[in-house]
Amino acid sequence: MRNNPAATLMLYCSACGKDANEYNWTLETAAAFSEGEKTCPTLLLLLLEALDDPKKYSDYQLVCPHCHEKVRLRQIPLPERKALLNYLKEVGEEYLRERF
């Protein structure tokens, strides 16, 4: 799944004010919304696509792994492209395309 399981990309939750790792956001969101064949993409994929088209997933709901509140993608400060690409190198392309 992830090439480096220790890789971190911390993202701020506007609901509780805490930072959480991208992977934990992905898992928490999938736990809330995935059912059968309806699965969720990684948050990393959404963030990378949001850099090029901020409105594409702006209303996509995520779940904070700390407070468990639903937060829209537009409410999360986007990391810089360089940070996202460095994280992608650590976790690998296979993880990017994974569905949960």
Biggest beta-sheet profile:
2 strands, antiparallel
Distance between the termini: 11 Å
Give the proportion of residues in helices.
25-40%
The number of strands is: 4
How many separate structural domains? Answer: 1
Number of helices, counting only DSSP H or I runs of 4 residues or more: 4
Shape: globular
Question: Low-confidence stretches at least 5 residues in length (pLDDT < 50)?
Answer: none
Range of strand content: 5-15%
- The structure class reads alpha+beta
**Mean pLDDT rating:** 96
Give me the Rg, rounded. 12 Å
Strand order of the largest sheet: 1-2
H/E series, N to C? EEHHEEHH
Task: Report on the architecture of this protein.
The chain is α+β, with helices and mostly antiparallel strands and 100 residues long. The protein has one domain (10-96). 37% of the residues lie in helices and 12% in strands. It has 4 helices and 4 strands. The strands form 2 sheets. It has a two-stranded antiparallel ribbon with strand order 1-2. Strand 3 and strand 4 (70-72) form a beta hairpin. Helix 2 packs antiparallel against helix 3. The longest helix is centred in the first third of the chain and has 12 residues, at 22-33. It is globular. The N and C termini lie close together (11 Å). The mean pLDDT is 96.
Secondary-structure blueprint of this entry?
Elements: E1 10-12, E2 19-21, H1 22-33, H2 43-52, E3 61-63, E4 70-72, H3 81-91, H4 93-96
Antiparallel strand pairs: 1-2, 3-4
At a glance:
The protein is an alpha+beta fold and 100 residues long. 37% of the residues lie in helices and 12% in strands. It has one domain.
